[in-house]
Design a protein that fits this description.
Layout: H1 3-16, H2 23-40, E1 44-50, E2 57-64, E3 67-74, H3 83-93, E4 100-105, H4 111-119, E5 124-127, H5 128-136, H6 141-155, H7 162-166, E6 168-169, E7 178-179, H8 183-188, E8 192-193, E9 198-205, E10 215-218, E11 224-228, E12 231-235, E13 242-247, E14 251-255, E15 261-265, E16 268-273, E17 276-281, E18 289-293, E19 299-304, E20 316-321, E21 333-336, E22 343-346, E23 352-355, E24 359-363, E25 377-378, E26 386-390, E27 394-399, E28 409-415, E29 421-427, E30 432-438, E31 443-449, E32 459-465
Parallel strand pairs: 3-4, 4-5
Antiparallel strand pairs: 1-2, 2-3, 6-13, 7-9, 8-29, 9-32, 10-11, 11-12, 12-13, 14-15, 15-16, 16-17, 18-19, 19-20, 20-21, 22-23, 23-24, 24-25, 26-27, 27-28, 28-29, 30-31, 31-32
Helix pairs in contact: 1-2
């Protein structure tokens, strides 16, 4: 198990040590655990350090460049008051100027120390959400500390909620704009749906973008959410108005029935709702992970853990069901299937379909998530660049046909159980398929790229209505 996953497992164990006889042991184990979290991210950290002449004891000491950071860590059943904060100020008095002090309380703080920290910059206060973000890998620990010190220096005080440290309103550039399709584009980039399928263009980017969108989701009010350029963009398909939403740099947006949006950010999975942020899980491989919807609207993360020992690249994969917090994240399901995975989809029946280069496979709990060679099937006749599960067993796959590579793309429906393939639509002159997302009982959104010879992407958003029974 890699270091990050091991830290998640240790944290889960600490969380379970909640009995009265375990409190002291958890307190002792918490300090070296925190030091290991900082060391995982490349910082010099030691735990349970005795001060000069044994004048005091520091739970954790971290070096951030030339700055020493003293940490007092508490994991009590109740909120703590001002005493640990006052003791930290005394420790700082005996350290060189420029040293920083942090008090961590997993149960939070009473009103008095919070009010003082908001009014006066002295000792930094961190709570459970900050710790869970560090464990999950929402951002590297050095970036986390620099953000904390920078923002408190800029705005005052010495405590900030996690949302203030993480959320940002776009990547610092104006929101890109869309417009309606025009006759020239309808001619140059035609849609050719199969019988019984309807398709329409909802919006086309006014001009080329600096980076392509990395994910697509529909909001509860009919708006479309795009992860792009490290930000979260909201597009109203009716007016084609756009604006940035508060979010961390993120990918793979997935909307729950209650309107909560889950995204991947760094190595973590987080929920975004009304300007708030909740870490759901972590230790995932950045740029190798994406979110999946499972049966009963459960949320999962599929990621590639690299090559297994002595095996081919791409043979070791992980499937993790998200819990409510990283403290309850279960161990991942390990799936061995050698091959370069193009897309992974959880069907409505709870089976995982892996679309690979030469062969694909359908696996699930009824087979112990094994992928024996006898279960492999020849891959479909396209290289999928996006995928979406529809119903109990249907998987939509979109990408370039194997026998017609280039600027022609296709959308097909695959019966994952039988392997039967139905052509849904062809898209001539389309450079890339960027994303697929559900938009109702029979509607799906398809995001394409019609950049042509331009080196920069030009997104185009389509709504496709599937025939009944797909």
């Amino acid at each position: 198990m890699d270091t990050s996953l091991h830290l998640v497992r240790r944290f889960r164990h600490l969380e379970a040590m909640n009995g009265p006889k375990q409190a002291a042991a958890r307190g002792r184990d918490f300090n070296p655990f925190l030091a290991d979290v900082f060391r995982r991210d490349g910082l010099d950290a030691v735990s349970e350090l005795q001060g000069l002449d044994q004048r005091d004891e520091i739970d954790v000491h971290v070096m951030l460049g030339d700055t020493g950071v003293l940490i007092e860590a508490k994991w009590y059943a109740r909120k703590i008051g001002a005493t640990p904060v006052s003791e930290m100020r005394e420790r700082l008095d005996s350290r060189p100027s420029g040293s920083r002090g942090i008090v961590i309380s997993m149960s939070g703080f009473t009103k008095a120390p919070i009010d003082k920290a908001r009014a006066k910059a002295a000792v930094y206060l961190l709570e459970r959400p900050h710790v869970e973000a560090l464990i999950a890998g929402l951002m590297p620990a050095d970036d986390f500390l620099r953000n904390l010190f920078t923002l408190t220096s800029r705005y005052g005080g010495s405590t900030l909620p996690l949302e203030t440290l993480v959320l940002r309103n776009g990547p610092g550039s104006p929101a890109p704009t869309f417009r309606a399709d025009d006759p020239d584009e309808a001619r140059d980039f035609p849609l050719k749906p199969a019988r019984g399928v309807t398709a329409e263009v909802l919006a086309t980017a006014d001009e080329a973008w600096t980076a392509p969108p990395t994910g697509l989701a529909t909001d509860t009010d009919g708006a479309v959410l795009l992860t792009v350029d490290g930000g979260l963009l909201r597009l109203d398909p009716r007016t084609r108005d756009t604006r940035w939403l508060p979010a961390p740099p993120c990918t793979s947006p997935l909307l729950a029935d209650d309107g909560t949006l889950t995204v991947l950010s760094g190595a973590a999975a987080v929920d975004l709702s009304a300007g708030g942020l909740q870490v759901r899980g972590g230790a995932f491989r950045p740029n190798r992970a994406h979110l999946l919807t499972g049966p009963e609207r459960t949320t999962w993360v599929f990621d590639n853990d690299g090559a297994r020992v002595g095996g081919p690249v791409g043979g070791h994969h992980r499937l993790t069901q998200l819990a409510t917090t990283v403290a309850h994240q279960p161990d991942p399901i390990i799936i061995d299937f050698p091959g370069n995975i193009h897309q992974a989809v959880l069907t409505g029946s709870g089976h995982l379909y892996l679309a690979a280069g030469g062969h694909s496979v359908l696996t699930g709990p009824d087979t112990g998530w094994d992928c024996p060679k006898d279960d492999w099937t020849p891959s479909v006749g396209l290289t999928p660049q996006a995928a979406l599960a529809v119903g109990k067993r249907t998987v939509l796959l979109a990408g370039p046909p194997v026998d017609a590579p280039g600027v022609d793309k296709a959308l097909i429906a695959l019966d994952a159980s039988s392997g039967a393939v139905t052509q849904i639509m062809s898209l001539p002159n389309t450079t890339y398929i960027l994303a697929l997302a559900p938009a109702g009982d029979r509607d799906v959104l398809l995001l394409t790229d019609i950049r042509g010879n331009d080196a920069r992407p030009r997104p185009r958003l389509l709504r496709i209505t599937l025939p009944a029974g797909t």
